[in-house]
């Protein structure tokens, strides 16, 4: 239970799920060379890798947190917190933060635990570390801010708890001097100094006849380009918000359950059946889609340069053209699901698998 609300576990598979068609031989139209690999331990979808200041931060379910050199994959530091980790990692390059399954926010500096504080509810979203503060979005839709050096609670902004909450990472990011969070089906701009609400923009709305069908939540990752932030409402819609005005630019129906990514011209996402969809960022008009990866339980995408990168449940990383979704390359890991969105770190593509493998490739 989370603040009196039940937790709905997100799941994109079931006993009757169609089997994917075999993939054709790989067409390596863009050169990619493996740069390094590392191991952190069994992971979960809420333990997303994060990169800042030339480091890749990773965490395992069992309690390991590590900072890896983005160029070599070697440990900069590694620590075991002695307890299971539920969400992470966030960092500003100096302080890293995770949340344990015991509802504790833990800050790490220089590879050593700096402080930990008890939270009021479970958390599935990685903490945001910015401006010498640590921000947390809890499953009961409370946003709290803590002093980055001491862990002192600075403020909390709460919303009325709903009957169900989603056990999946949400939306929490900084845009200029505004803290942007996903609260239910709305993207909300907060003053990071005191938590006051600056604006709210709807993306998804409650629907259906029962509590499960009426559940509405924004899921991460989000796509930010300048002041434009595009997000997915779980199994309902994709939309973009102009954070300078707090107004929704557009919203389109969509059935995916993982976040989106994009560039200045497009937003990319995957639907629950494995269709990869591109929308025009300016208008939300569909740009293209491809059904080449149907029924492969795809994770959230990463748009970088000329390509869109997506991992699947078999540990394969698909490199697609951003222009039309055609295949550019295909990369292999340890065969376990790539649950988290890929990231870029120092011009290196990095993915993390459920078995805790961290794999990095360098474009040629």
Defining key terms:
364 residues; mainly beta; 4-stranded antiparallel beta sheet; 1 helix; 1% helix; globular
Question: In words, what does this structure look like?
Answer:
It is globular and about 55 Å long. The longest helix has 4 residues, at 211-214. It starts with 5 loop residues before the first strand and ends with a strand. 1% of the residues lie in helices and 49% in strands. The chain has 364 residues and is mainly beta. The chain is built from one helix and 34 strands. A hairpin with a 5-residue loop joins strand 5 and strand 6 (75-80). It has a four-stranded antiparallel β-sheet with strand order 2-34-33-32, with no helix packed on it. A four-stranded antiparallel β-sheet has the order 3-4-5-6, with no helix packed on it.
